[in-house]
Amino acid sequence: AQKITQTQPGMFVQEKEAVTLDCTYDTSDPSYGLFWYKQPSSGEMIFLIYQGSYDQQNATEGRYSLNFQKARKSANLVISASQLGDSAMYFCAMREGYGNNRLAFGKGNQVVVIP
Amino acid sequence: DGGITQSPKYLFRKEGQNVTLSCEQNLNHDAMYWYRQDPGQGLRLIYYSQIVNDFQKGDIAEGYSVSREKKESFPLTVTSAQKNPTAFYLCASSTDLRELFFGEGSRLTVL
């Protein structure tokens, strides 16, 4: 069974608008971590934000925030005030347990920011 | 500057040849990871190592081998037994469970 599901089709977003990228996950482990990465066309994976399963507050990092809904097993990424440089693939990933940082990745969401 | 260096960036290989992808980090991270990415797909874990001289198979280890003789180095060998090796390979490292940092990747094409 897929551990991370990202099913949105490619998205076009107007510059300066906010965009929400959906991510649902599946785990029976009470201890887990959720990550979002950005992959521009150059291929590198850029870490954006992390949310631990026991974190009380939703994570925020600058223009990125994570809407963590534990009961729904949902970890949506919100990008506020989109910029042209935000055009990229975005991947949601999950670590289960605390033994190591091996991550399971979703298939990604394509975002294109238009002026 | 601290970071993860992967080389080569592009590599072409004939069928039946082994190739080795280099991954070096100067972040003093204990754990290192190799992932594979196919077009339009997410990343899949090949091997990982949490400490020098120790490594574990990930989800798709068949046809690959690794070594971890030094903390800063985690080379990946794509052997001739790997049936479909053309892919983008990403190396990563971490010392904290809240972060995983990636190199810029190596793109392998089998001719």
List keywords for this structure.
heterodimer; A: 115 residues; 4-stranded antiparallel β-sheet; B: 111 residues; mainly beta; 7-stranded mixed β-sheet; 0% helix
How many angstroms separate the termini of chain A? Answer: 39 Å
Radius of gyration of chain B: 13 Å
Task: Indicate the mean pLDDT of chain A.
Answer: 94
Main sheet makeup of chain B: 7 strands, mixed
Please count the helical segments of chain A.
0
Rg of chain A, nearest Å: 14 Å
What structural class results from the helix and strand content of chain A? Answer: mainly beta
| Silhouette of chain B | globular
SS elements, strand count of chain A: 12
Mean pLDDT across every amino acid position of chain B: 94
Q: Low-confidence spans of chain A: pLDDT under 50, at least 5 residues? A: none
Helix-strand sequence of chain A: EEEEEEEEEEEE
Please give the share of residues in helix of chain B.
under 10%
